[in-house]
From TrEMBL:
EC number(s) on file: 2.4.2.10, 4.1.1.23
Entry superkingdom: Eukaryota
Source taxonomy: Eukaryota, Metazoa, Chordata, Craniata, Vertebrata
Pathway: Pyrimidine metabolism; UMP biosynthesis via de novo pathway; UMP from orotate: step 2/2; Pyrimidine metabolism; UMP biosynthesis via de novo pathway; UMP from orotate: step 1/2
Residues of the Orotidine 5'-phosphate decarboxylase domain: 174-387
Family per similarity comment: In the C-terminal section; belongs to the OMP decarboxylase family.
Active site: D233 (for ompdecase activity), K235 (for ompdecase activity), D238 (for ompdecase activity)
Residue numbers binding substrate: D180, K202, S293, Q351, G371, R372
Annotated source species: Eptatretus burgeri
The protein's name in its UniProt record: Uridine 5'-monophosphate synthase
Keywords of this entry: Decarboxylase, Glycosyltransferase, Lyase, Multifunctional enzyme, Pyrimidine biosynthesis, Transferase
One of the protein's GO biological processes: 'de novo' UMP biosynthetic process
GO molecular function term, any single one: orotate phosphoribosyltransferase activity
UniProt-listed PANTHER family: OROTATE PHOSPHORIBOSYLTRANSFERASE, URIDINE 5'-MONOPHOSPHATE SYNTHASE
Length: 402
């Protein structure tokens, strides 16, 4: 793979610099896949890497996302004798009017190959069309997709988002623990036991018995040793001046120890701007609550869209969103999803649970927040590891495999 990457750089398929993409995003990396057509041996080498990466998926047909991935799919088809399908961009207005060309029968399984994935829209369109034609799509393979690490290179990624994305990539975990226990002593024991498995430790300081300064000093020491970030789920929702006092003062003095906090969008951007001013380090940040996991939440539709839009006024402070779906396709924001359990369902009090595979793999968010799924388990460590494994597998399935 490294040799192949070197050659991709040599022939300028892969470029580093400052590039404004079609979407308006500025990227430090650019993949000009069409350049590869002049180097058939390199094209075959890349197709072979894709074949190796997709080996454990069982498929009988191969289809490239039009147009630039078609030669890759063709190469795979010829080398491995896999029948090729072509998905037209529009159905022909004459003759067969077919949108999927090639020989297949409904129920067969097809691998979709794409050259570069930024947001995945073209791939999802192709998958939908193949499924409508009766085909099964087990796996989508891309020659390039944005990993957590790559997203830290985007100039629009906020400092806290960069810290979190790098930590997730290095530690290989996208699980945040919701440490909703009764006392600070219990929270410290949890942090010590599960710290090695998680990227963030989330608390509601006002719901923990025995809160004092020694608690957050000890928590910060554990966080440093086990490498996780401290998340106070305060959900600020007041006018700017009050939100600032709640952040800096009182018993909790949140700004002194929390790396990240949550802020509701309901009061507009003033709370965010005040918190940013009061922030003890420019590396800290906030997540805007743009959707909620509970039944009947009003954070939907236009509210959600306005919350996402609002983040732009405070780009250095807002790291991303609390959400249950892909509320934005901009990869600089980190999407954090609560309401996650290994089995779908509810808690009888309005909470609704989705699985790690559903939120990370299918809906395309980045971090799962798990509370009772781990805390109520007999073996908390083994259960945290099971969530970590499931969420990481779902992430790896989403980004490039080669
Ligand atoms: O919409 C939301 C937003 C949040 S931050 N729904 C949520 O459940 N949360 C938080 O995630 C909630 O405050 C709790 O700490 C955690 C979910 O806990 P669980 O025990 O249901 O996994």
């Amino acid at each position: 793979m490294d040799e192949c990457t070197d050659r991709l750089l040599d022939v300028q398929v892969l470029k580093f610099g400052t590039y404004t993409l079609r979407t308006g995003l500025v990227s430090p990396v650019y993949v000009d896949f069409r350049e590869i057509f002049g180097f058939p041996d390199l094209l075959c080498e890349l197709a072979e890497l894709i074949f190796q990466a997709s080996r454990e998926a069982q498929y009988e047909l191969v289809c490239g996302v039009p147009y630039t991935a078609l030669p890759l799919a063709t190469c795979l088809s010829i080398t491995h004798r896999l029948p090729l399908l072509i998905r037209r961009k529009e159905a022909k207005g004459y003759g067969t009017k077919r949108i999927v060309e090639g020989k297949f029968v409904p129920g067969q399984t097809c691998l979709i190959v794409e050259d570069v994935v930024t947001f995945g829209t073209s791939i999802l369109d192709t998958a939908r069309i193949l499924q409508q034609a009766g085909l099964k799509v087990p796996r989508i393979i891309s020659a390039a997709a944005m990993s957590y690490g790559q997203r830290t290179l985007l100039p629009t990624t906020a400092p806290f988002a960069t810290r979190l994305l790098s930590l997730m990539e290095e530690k290989r975990t996208n699980v945040a623990l919701a440490a909703d226990v009764l006392s600070c002593a219990e929270a410290l024991a949890l942090a010590e036991e599960l710290g090695p498995e998680i990227c963030m430790f989330k608390i509601h300081a006002d719901a923990l018995g025995g809160f004092d300064e020694s608690f957050h000093l000890r928590l910060a020491e554990i966080a440093k040793r086990h490498r996780f970030l401290l998340f106070e789920d305060r959900k600020f929702a007041d006018i700017g001046s009050v939100a600032r006092r709640q952040y800096e003062g009182g018993i909790f003095r949140i700004s002194h120890w929390a790396d990240v906090v949550t802020v509701h969008a309901v009061a507009g951007p003033s709370a965010l701007l005040s918190l940013q001013e009061a922030c003890s380090s420019t590396d800290n940040g906030a997540f805007i609550v743009s959707e909620m996991s509970c039944q009947g939440s009003l954070a939907v539709g236009n509210y959600t869209q306005a919350a996402v839009e609002m983040a732009k006024v405070c780009r250095d402070f807002v790291a991303g969103f609390i959400c249950t779906s892909r509320v934005t396709t901009d990869p600089s924001w980190v999407l954090v999803t609560p309401g996650v359990k290994l089995q779908e369902g509810g808690d009888g009090q309005g909470q609704q649970y989705l699985t790690p595979e559903e939120v990370i793999g299918r809906r395309g968010t980045d971090v799962i927040v798990v509370g009772r799924g781990i805390i109520d388990a007999d073996d908390r460590l083994a259960t945290a590891q099971a969530y970590r494994h499931a969420a990481w597998q779902a992430y790896e399935g989403r980004v490039a495999q080669i």
